[in-house]
Amino acid sequence: MGNGVHDGTDVEDCSTKLTVDVWLKRVERRRQLAYPNDCDSYSEHPMSDEVHAKRGSWTGRYDFLLSLLGYSVGLGNVWRFPYLCYSNGGGAFLIPFVVMLVIAGLPLMFMELSLAQYAGLGPAVIFKRLAPLSEGLGYGMILIAGMVMLYYNVIIAWTVFYMAVSFEEPLPWRGCQHEWATPNCFSYEEEDDCIANNRSYYMAKCFTTEQARILNTTLRTPRKPPAEEFFKNYFLQLSSGIEVTGGINHRLALCLLVAWIIVFLCLSRGVKSSGKVVYFTALFPYVVLTMLFVRGLTLPGAYDGIMYYLQPDWDKLHTAQIWGDAAVQIFFALSPAWGGLLTLASYNRFDNNCYRDALLVAICNILTSFFAGFVIFAIIGFLAHELDTSVSSVIDQGAGLAFVVFPELVGKLQMPRLWSVLFFFMLLTLGLDSQFTLMETVVTGVLDTFPTLRRRKLVVVSCVSIIGYLGGLIFVTKSGMYWFQLFDKYAANWSVLLIAIAECILVSWIYGAERFICNIEQMMGKRSVLFRRFWILIWKYITPATLMFILCFNWVQYSPVTYGRYIYPHWADAVGWVIALAPFLIVILVAVARLQSQPGPKTRQQLLNLLKPTKEWKPSEPRLAAERAYENSGGIEL
Predict the structure, then answer these.
(1) CA 423 to CA 413: how far, in whole Å?
(2) pLDDT of residue 625
(3) Scanning 45, 249, 421, 599, which has its CA 20 to 30 A from the CA of 473?
(4) Looking at the record, which segments are called Disordered (predicted)?
């Protein structure tokens, strides 16, 4: 360049840049006159505010995709979907499940990913800039993530314990010859007498099936497998009710500490560290599921279990139950309105194709859920075959499937310790992915609200971990399982749906679906007319209507929380409703506070102004957004 000779490429680049600058200035001048707070006003300079400049970003090509996959594919895919599928018409359940994915789950996921990627902000700040009156939506999401984070890590603590004791020989839940076994403990594996030391009955070797049935009818004693008694009597040391707190279970408290240390170490450097861990934690469950599937197919009774899972009952498609269950499952599987999707996408590059990512993860979620059903029902079919009973009498969901049914099963396999370690390690990795995002949502909320703390991020992560551990101690008392069920019932239910409806209306009607599509095109390039019309229709009409259906369905199907035969006292239900409505109450209180902070009498115009984007609302990469907008317009002045 020093000899004064310029090649054609440099001249062309400079010419293009000048054209963009001229176009940008003219567009900016017109938009500022017409819409002082419009989001499409661009700055010539990149964002320099501390909130965006120092918050970090994904460092690897697939960090975000795998983190999103790990967050969306969790424990519910393994221990809830198969049960819902079998109880809602088998293979017929896939039809409403896919429909609800298209009209509810995927639209909300795509909306949140696009919104956060465009602004480069987490839930604590993004709604404050999008529409100040909606600022509480972000705080409500963070509160939901925080509450779920407390009890979700307890599941990880359980898996840590079960994985550790799986190395023992024999497995500790084998047989009823233990102090924790009650007279109701029933095992098929005792070697000697029909009546063991604790007076348990072992009918497999002592009686025929008919004799066992008659004896059981005569005794009218509920039979419980050793794995269930081990889980409740030894592991949980379960009290008689939520009102009987008892002391802290030190074994569980230690496991919970280990779980929080694991989470802290993986998140100590934010998305830079967690983005690397997910390469293992997001993919390893598929390896174990495949191994279990192959092993399950070789077991007697596996075919009957799988057929029981798949046998379609088309008549159930005419009932509201199957559509409601499908809507609830897909909504909570993809987890919109929890703040996690916004948090993950806020660390994306501005031009990342989040539409592709949303489609891939949504499809993987369905396929994983369906495949997990094959695995679970293959091994449950084997267990039913071994117990000489029906599949329906063995199937369970949730913690009962993971910590009672499967431990009972592995005792009947060759190399039981290997399969037990692999299964609980799979649950550990499934749980960690979701826990990473839940905790990152809380941490990001703190750092976005108080940007000066970014220099001490390690301290913030430490404080959140300590508070999380202390808050989780209620779940490791002798009444901890009752508290766990209470939080699981209420923490992510009503407020999540209400916040999702408010968010959908805010983006599609108040901010404008058309304007939002333009923002998406600034990130990912010009889209077809069909794309624009489809998503405008979905976001403005179909998804809000579907969310209202889910809300009404949940309301109609509501029943107070129970655990087995235990009925919770009225005060516990009241606490549950406080947990359920607290996040949305924050949304209302913040909106009222925002309105009251406006000077002068409260007018309709003040309300409308609080529903408009602020001056700080802008793309995370204004220069790139301006160039993309220039390309989409063909250089024509607007």
Answers:
(1) 13
(2) 65
(3) 421
(4) 619-638
